[in-house]
Amino acid sequence: MTVAAAARQVVVFPGRPWYAAEPDAPHLRLTFAAAPPDRLDEGIRRLADALRE
Predict the structure, then answer these.
(1) pLDDT over threshold 90, residue 53
(2) Greater model confidence, 24 or 36
(3) For residue 40, pLDDT beyond 90
(4) HSE value, Cβ hemisphere, 13 Å, CA-based, for 41
(5) High-pLDDT (> 70) share of the chain, %
(6) 32-48: string of b/e by CB count within 10 Å (b at 16+)?
(7) DSSP conformation letters of the chain
(8) Do 43 and 10 meet the contact criterion of CB atoms below 8 Å apart?
(9) Distance of alpha carbon 49 from its chain centroid, rounded?
(10) In degrees rounded to 5, what are phi and psi of residue 42?
(11) pTM recorded for the entire structure
């Protein structure tokens, strides 16, 4: 999924390092603190497209 996301100019990092105290499970960390709402909508659309691959 990281390659498919990168092809759509969406950067994806594993979420695991931010949840070190939690049981092992897949995580995806989404950071959105500095993005305006229209950019978030576009990023979510691109990420959804990447997940469908």
Answers:
(1) no
(2) 36
(3) no
(4) 3
(5) 100
(6) eeeeeeeeeeebeebbe
(7) -HHHHHHTT----BSGGGGTTSPS---B----TT--HHHHHHHHHHHHHHHH-
(8) yes
(9) 12
(10) -65, -40
(11) 0.68
